[in-house]
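Work Package 4 report. The design task specified in the project plan requires that, given a folded chain encoded as structure tokens, an amino acid be chosen for each position. We show below one input record used in the internal validation round.
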């Protein structure tokens, strides 16, 4: 049994790198795959490049994002999924490179029907100079390890059994950053957890450059901060549902910090949003703290700045 793997690659004006990605797919030791390229409206010669690869191998298929969908990688990923027929799904970025055993190393587990197959990777610079491989530890709780940043994953890291997405929302279209984090955490958060295997062996090169999301995430722009808040609020709620004090404390502190950092950078809409979502969550576990958060939060939003002393007091409430 050799399950069909759908490799889904959203792309936009990445001809400088897309050819390397395609070449790395073509030399996979495991041959039962299809590659779905979804063009997000490129204005360079992406179509001509992909047409060339399509002519070389019928397993490669080119699609243009329908005009009915808004632009963005998430809609392209979701559309690619709809166009795919594979038993397993691996979303892959258009500037990264698979090593030849990217798929074959996980074949035995695919044949067993494992739902989530995770591998390590090499972070590299734009010229593909290798850095040290990311080390992945075996995990008792997949969700918890990922939520607490103990398990480092990127979009390419996970090969999914298609069945796991039945009746599930895929990537959230409006989310600008952390889109794979939101999806992965939502899929991992279930009882019982998905069957999974972690292969602590680097199977792809993960390119990092100034135009990548990894670098953009280091900048405190409003869209990035909102996306981080969105995921953090979900995880605080999950921590409360599971009565997990470590998760609660971790994400409560993170959200309080983001409230004050948004004030510092004059991102008032983010401050208002996180306060409005955080107070009801905190009320579920500590009514008095929720009142204090609401009181100080409204004052600081009104005056347009925070207080280090009050921030410290609020953040360390559960210590």
């Amino acid at each position: 049994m050799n399950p069909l793997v759908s490799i889904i690659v959203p792309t936009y004006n990445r001809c400088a790198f897309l050819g390397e990605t395609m070449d790395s797919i073509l030399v996979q030791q495991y041959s039962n795959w299809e590659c779905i390229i979804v063009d997000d409206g490129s204005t360079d010669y992406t179509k001509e490049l992909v047409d060339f690869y399509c002519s070389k191998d019928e397993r490669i298929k080119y699609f243009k994002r329908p005009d009915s969908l808004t632009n963005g990688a998430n809609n392209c990923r979701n559309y690619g999924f709809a166009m795919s027929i594979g038993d397993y799904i691996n979303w892959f970025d258009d500037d990264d490179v698979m090593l030849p055993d990217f798929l074959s190393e996980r074949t035995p587990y695919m044949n067993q029907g494992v739902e989530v197959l995770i591998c390590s990777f090499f972070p590299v610079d734009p010229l593909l100079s290798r850095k040290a491989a990311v080390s992945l530890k075996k995990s008792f709780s997949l969700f918890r390890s990922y939520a607490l940043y103990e398990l480092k994953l990127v979009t390419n890291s996970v090969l999914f059994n298609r069945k796991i997405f039945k009746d599930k929302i895929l990537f959230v279209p409006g989310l600008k950053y952390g889109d794979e984090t939101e999806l992965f955490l939502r899929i991992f958060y279930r009882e019982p957890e998905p069957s999974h295997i972690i292969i602590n062996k680097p199977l792809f090169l993960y390119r990092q450059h100034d135009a990548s999301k990894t670098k953009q995430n280091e900048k405190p722009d409003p869209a990035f901060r909102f996306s981080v808040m969105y995921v953090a609020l979900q995880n605080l709620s999950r921590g409360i549902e599971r009565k997990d004090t470590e998760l609660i404390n971790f994400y409560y502190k993170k959200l309080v910090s983001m409230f004050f950092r948004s004030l510092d950078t004059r991102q008032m809409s983010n401050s208002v949003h996180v306060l409005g979502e955080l107070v009801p969550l905190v009320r579920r576990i500590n009514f008095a703290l929720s009142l204090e958060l609401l009181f100080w939060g409204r004052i600081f939003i009104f005056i347009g700045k925070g207080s280090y002393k009050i921030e410290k007091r609020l953040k360390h409430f559960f210590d």
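The chain has a mean pLDDT of 93. Validation will be extended to a larger panel in the next phase.
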